[in-house]
Design a protein that fits this description.
The chain is an all-alpha fold. The chain folds into two domains: 241 residues, no CATH class; 199 residues, no CATH class. It has 21 helices and four strands. The strands form two sheets. A two-stranded antiparallel sheet has the order 1-2. A hairpin with a 2-residue loop joins strand 3 and strand 4. The longest helix has 26 residues. The relative contact order is 0.10.
Length: 544
């Protein structure tokens, strides 16, 4: 349960401290002020990175004993978060930040033992890089990726979502190679990211700032180098795919700046997300497309993790070339997307006769309100005894949600949504072997049928509710889907195919049913919050 507790500790600390640091940032004028290069319309607090750093660090310190590598990562992270926080407040420029990035990288290289000693098949067999070559190369890679993630932080949820996909891949690789330390650190960052993204997904209420983006870039490349460097079957070029899209974006932007005779370090609006917006895509659509592209890079890295370095390099070049070619052609021909109201004309019109059937909508809403919490409660009751320390974490989460519910109900809904992302998969996984029997009757079929009724009721609500705010599709939904799909390779060795399918189906049903419930006005949000608090308390009592 150490992995689960690491996840929840990072999540809980980040969720609690984001609002606190946000208030401090507003008073201290640590704000991102809009200008012609930026897409937000009002000053935004830049304190999310500080909350993520705290959640990440505390979860690691609680989860594992500190050794040289962990100490070096935490020390380097502290340097970057501190420098980023100063820059967020005073705009110190790229030179001091660059020096701090070099200092952080040297800490993990010289003290933590992170070093690119070989280029694998890219050089003749057996060639080991001397220290005078390996140290500068490692320094260049760490500083380069740290800046790449920093530069990717241009739209709501963009940098956070990209790195969440990266750390999901790193957790999978660490699991496959048996690297417990890397697994703990990846999960700690995943928990911190989910806590932050609940406030940063469009429309964002807080930004991560340079303190957060530098932390994410630094931690992602250091963990990638550790995992690939400590396993003989993983090529040293694999991080190129793991951090593929940010690397490509940074290289292209800097090339274009130098081609125009400008400094490569002066900010502009030539990033891929800017180009997607200029093509006519909406904010959320641009973020979704970049998530999808990064998923292709990361998915390729995981699928071809044991391939030769030449193959990985060729794959990166091919994917990058396709992306560059698309934007080049779009720029030459001045392409812009055409919008067709397909749903309203093709589907919505055909279902128009259902609009007046308020009785169907009422039945579907009532079914979801009652059935969804009941199914979650059943899973909570089936959970076996859990460790006492995890009970305390869950009780703290329940108390925190109750406090937000009293003081700020809208924020409580966002917090509950994030808790659900972790609570539901844990409950389902722990109950996979349970028989769902009562008085000798096997009720698994009844349970699964109830899950199907639940999702059908949710879909009916979406189609018949005149309030368009019933359900919001956002880039976060794509991240949830990626996590659900990633379950198969990550836990496939622990579950058979039937269990894995049952696991994924339940996750998707519960996730989207809860999403619709939360967005179904005050009543739906209240039911979701109350059922989540009750579920946390039921599970927590198992350990007391």
């Amino acid at each position: 349960m150490t992995l689960v507790s690491t996840l929840f500790i990072a999540l809980f600390i980040t969720l609690v401290t984001v609002p606190m640091f946000k208030s401090v940032a507003v008073r201290a004028h640590i704000l991102d002020v809009p200008d012609e290069r930026k897409v937000h319309a009002r000053p935004m607090p830049r304190s999310g990175g500080l909350a993520m750093a705290l959640g990440f660090s505390v979860a690691i310190l609680v989860g594992v004993s500190v050794e040289r590598f962990i100490g070096s990562v935490l020390a380097g992270s502290f340097i970057l978060v501190a420098a980023g926080l100063v820059d967020d407040r005073y705009e110190i420029g790229y030179k001091p930040k660059f020096l701090c990035q070099v200092a952080a990288a040297l800490v993990v290289i010289l003290y933590g033992g992170i070093e690119i000693k070989s280029l694998g098949m890219l050089l003749p067999d057996g060639v080991v890089l001397p220290m005078w070559a390996s140290v500068p190369l490692t320094l260049l890679v760490i500083v380069g990726v740290t800046n790449a993630i920093n530069l990717a932080d241009g739209l709501d949820g963009l940098a956070g979502g990209i790195t969440l996909i990266i750390f999901l891949c790193l957790f999978g690789l660490a699991y496959q190679t048996g690297d417990d330390t890397a697994m703990i650190m990846s999960l700690a960052m995943l928990g911190a990211l989910f806590g932050f993204l609940s406030f940063n997904t469009y429309p964002a209420t807080v930004f991560m700032g340079d303190s957060g983006s530098q932390l994410l870039g630094f931690a992602s490349i250091v963990l990638a180098l550790r995992i690939t460097g400590s396993h003989a079957l993983l090529g040293p070029s694999l991080p190129l795919l793991i951090v593929g899209f940010p690397i490509l974006d940074t290289c292209i932007v800097m090339f274009e700046r130098m081609k125009e005779g400008r400094s490569p370090f002066v900010a502009d609006n030539n990033h891929f997300h800017h180009k997607l917006l200029s093509l006519g895509f909406f904010h959320t659509e641009a973020v979704f497309i970049i998530y999808l592209l990064q998923t292709v890079f990361v998915g390729s890295a995981y699928l071809f993790r044991y391939s030769s370095d030449w193959f990985i390099l060729g794959l990166f070049v091919s994917l990058s070339g396709a992306i560059i070619a698309f934007f080049y052609v779009a720029g030459i021909y001045g392409l812009r997307i055409k919008r067709y109201d397909f749903i309203d004309r093709g589907i919505k019109g055909r279902l128009k006769f259902l609009k007046d059937r308020d009785r169907i909508l009422f039945t579907a809403t009532l079914t979801l309100d009652l059935l969804l919490p009941l199914l979650i409660f059943i899973n909570c009751l089936l959970v076996s005894r859990i460790p006492g320390y995890l009970s305390l974490v869950l009780l703290s989460l329940a108390a925190g949600v109750c406090g937000l519910w009293v003081m700020k109900k809208s924020m409580a809904g966002n917090v509950v949504r994030v808790i659900i992302y972790f609570l539901i998969p844990c409950l389902i996984y722990l109950n996979l072997e349970k028989s769902f029997s009562f008085s000798g009757l096997n009720l698994r079929t009844v349970y699964l049928g109830s899950c199907i009724v639940c999702i059908l009721s949710a879909l009916v609500m979406v189609r018949l509710n005149k309030n368009r705010d019933t359900f919001h599709m956002s880039p976060m939904d794509f991240l949830i889907l990626i996590i659900a799909i990633s379950v198969y390779p990550l836990v496939g060795t622990m579950m058979n195919a039937k269990q894995t399918g049952f696991f994924i189906v339940q996750i998707l049903i519960f996730f989207y049913s809860y999403e619709i419930l939360i967005n179904n006005g005050k009543r739906g949000r209240s039911i979701a919050i109350a059922s989540t608090v009750t579920s946390l308390m039921i599970v927590a009592l198992k350990g007391l």
